[in-house]
Specification:
It is a single chain. This protein is of the alpha/beta class and 501 residues long. It has three domains: 220 residues, FAD/NAD(P)-binding domain, CATH 3.50.50; 104 residues, Guanine Nucleotide Dissociation Inhibitor, domain 1, CATH 1.10.405; 137 residues, no CATH class. It is built from 15 helices and 19 strands. Strands 1, 2, 9, 10, 11, 12, 18 and 19 form an eight-stranded mixed β-sheet that branches. Helix 1 runs parallel beside helix 8, helix 1 packs parallel to helix 14 and helix 14 packs across helix 15. The model has no long low-confidence stretch (mean pLDDT 92).
Length: 501
């Protein structure tokens, strides 16, 4: 029976990060991926040779002392990822349709605050108070400093206060409240449900420096793949764990793969959805309270994705990627209420992509979606969907296309639809229950499945474990790696890679 120091299940950004961290520190690692290729939602796909992003579109943290910057430097990955900053405020616009107003926000913490004060004279103190609270939460969150992270969760008073409550405290202006909570689209939870602390930890890096990445998520995947080759890291696709056996003293002795092979390991880390992890753990060893806690996790919102290209477009050197977000109303709580609105939020992203020496203006538009939208076809299989589902997709594609051309009338008839994806598509290709974009909802007072599980050599990491998005998922892997490596070894490694603080 072959033995590894660690087995990592799931090869999204969290799984790749953890595998590399352990490999860099002398561990033999087996990285398992259920699908045909590594990368999870970081992967891209092509249509007529033109690349499109699956789940990774933009990020924060690419700045001096930014958490993403520190993680990439530690992993030796910084040179593989070239950020394309959205510094100009025209690159990041928000339109509240019911109120018929539009705002543009620059990148940069100070510049964002200054712009908001200009938009909302008389609200200066409330704006300052909000950003002071965001900064304070992140300064007191030790997991946002790689030198100080701990397996024990950061719990602050703000973890028990909703974003909604804070916004109501700092201002009565609904438009300002809406603009301060637009990044709810980056975690898929309404302001009344998410803790202000979680909101702050997700949004802080977006306020610091908003950026796309040249080559999208594939730039990360290519970098990880090249780095894996330097260490004792084995990657297997179309393979996962099917059973945990020979359990003694709450420690798994053997892990059975979907191929039938049996392996032994010192540590096994699942970076997959919590509900999928529960299917693999022996139920008799789990308490009723533990099972109830996991069963109560709700899926975050998802997206219906539209992919297109502007034919005959002039992609000159002066082009900058853009993000244009349409919200039916400035009341962000209402946009997550399926029965509240006739239309849904739509985020339209444009970028320049190259295929066979030709540059194209690619468009990816994400319209908020919920499991109820595809409930009628949830048991159907890929490649054999009923006609009703096909009609549903065609209707949403045409609706999104019309909304895009209203915002960009110059595209007119030149906008060519290349593909579309529903929540069922994400469910099939990313093995995500319900097809949710961000795993589970991050709700006030909720204790996520994170770190050590009831079995002593089994751990959980990933965006559902800590925070959604690339930054949260990678942070969870650093924390679990520290637990596996031990405090002293981890400390020496971080000091070697980043130096003393």
């Amino acid at each position: 029976m072959k033995k590894y120091d660690a087995i990592v299940v799931g090869s999204g950004i969290s799984g790749m990060t953890l595998a590399l961290l352990l490999g860099m520190n002398g561990r033999s690692v087996l990285l398992l991926e259920k699908g045909p290729r590594i990368g999870g939602s970081m992967t891209r796909f092509t249509r007529q040779g033109i690349p499109f992003d699956t789940g990774f579109h933009f990020t924060g943290g690419f700045c001096k002392d930014g958490i993403l910057q520190d993680m990439l430097v530690t992993l030796g990955m910084r040179d593989y990822t070239k950020p394309i900053y959205l510094f100009k405020k025209e690159c990041n616009r928000f339109n509240f349709e019911a109120e018929k107003v539009e705002y543009a926000l620059p990148s940069g913490y100070g510049d964002t605050i200054a712009q908001l004060k200009e938009y909302f004279p008389g609200e200066e103190r409330g704006i300052e108070r909000y950003f002071e609270m965001v900064r304070s939460v992140c300064a007191r969150t030790i997991s946002m400093d790689l030198r100080k992270i701990s397996l024990y969760p950061d719990v602050l008073d703000e973890d028990y206060i909703s974003l909604d409550a804070v916004l109501n405290e700092v201002t009565d202006n609904q438009l300002l409240k809406g603009l301060l909570s637009v990044y709810s689209m980056c975690y898929g939870v309404k302001p009344s449900e998410i803790a202000f602390a979680a909101h702050s930890r997700i949004c802080f890096s977006l306020y610091q420096a908003l950026a796309r990445v040249e080559g999208g998520g594939e730039a990360f995947i290519d970098g990880f793949r090249e780095c894996f080759a330097k260490y004792n890291i084995e990657v297997r696709c179309n393979c996962t764990i099917s059973e945990c056996t020979e359990i003694q003293n709450k420690q798994v002795g053997r892990f059975v793969l979907s191929t039938g092979e049996e392996l032994a390991t010192g540590h096994c880390v699942f970076t997959i959805h919590p509900h999928e992890i529960m299917k693999l753990l022996p139920q008799e060893l789990l308490s009723k309270a533990f099972l109830n806690r996991i069963n109560e996790f709700e899926p975050s919102a998802g997206f219906f994705s539209f992919y297109g290209v502007v034919n005959g477009d002039d992609t000159g050197d002066d082009f900058h990627p853009t993000i244009f977000s349409l919200f039916p109303t400035a009341d962000i709580n209402r946009i997550f209420d399926l029965k509240s609105l006739d239309s849904l939020p739509l985020v339209i992203m444009t970028s320049i992509e190259e295929a066979k020496g030709t540059r194209y203006r690619a468009i990816c538009a994400l319209e908020l979606s919920f499991p109820e939208h595809v409930e009628a076809w949830k048991d159907s299989k890929r490649g054999n969907r009923p006609s009703g589902y096909v009609a549903y997709k065609e209707e949403r594609v045409e609706s999104i296309r019309e909304r895009i051309t209203r915002v960009y009338p110059e595209y007119g008839e030149t906008l060519k639809v290349m593909d579309a994806a529903s929540m069922l598509t994400y469910k099939d290709y990313l093995h995500s229950p319900e097809g949710a974009a961000y795993g589970i909802k991050q709700k006030i007072g909720q204790f996520n499945l994170f770190g050590k599980l009831p079995l002593r050599n089994v751990y959980a990491a990933g965006q559902s474990s800590m925070l959604p998005g690339i930054v949260g998922a990678m942070m969870s892997s650093f924390i679990v790696a520290r637990s596996i490596m031990g405090i002293e070894e981890y400390g020496r490694f971080i000091k070697q890679r980043l130096g003393s603080s």
